[in-house]
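> forwarded from #structure-qc
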């Protein structure tokens, strides 16, 4: 337990932030997995239509500090490569 009042407040804030980040990270993973299943189904037109929305989700997660900038760029790059390979 924290001895200093500000440290106790920081600990309370950290708990809230951890819960919020866990939910956001989980929803991001869910969206990415559903997009992967769409790619595996081979529906190129639908994948191309949803790609900007997925990029927006990844960019927003990077902007809020949920994932690192390089991780976001890597995810976007790999997704675009997968979509380009679809015929």
């Amino acid at each position: 337990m924290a001895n200093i009042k500000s440290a106790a407040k920081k600990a309370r804030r950290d708990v809230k932030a951890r819960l919020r980040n866990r939910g956001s990270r989980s929803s991001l993973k869910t969206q990415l997995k559903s997009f992967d299943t769409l790619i595996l189904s081979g529906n190129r037109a639908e994948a191309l239509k949803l790609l900007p929305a997925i990029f927006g989700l990844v960019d927003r997660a990077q902007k809020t500090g949920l994932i690192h900038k390089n991780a976001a760029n890597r995810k976007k790059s790999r997704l675009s490569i997968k979509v380009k390979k679809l015929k």
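QC bot note: The chain has a mean pLDDT of 96. The radius of gyration is 17 Å.
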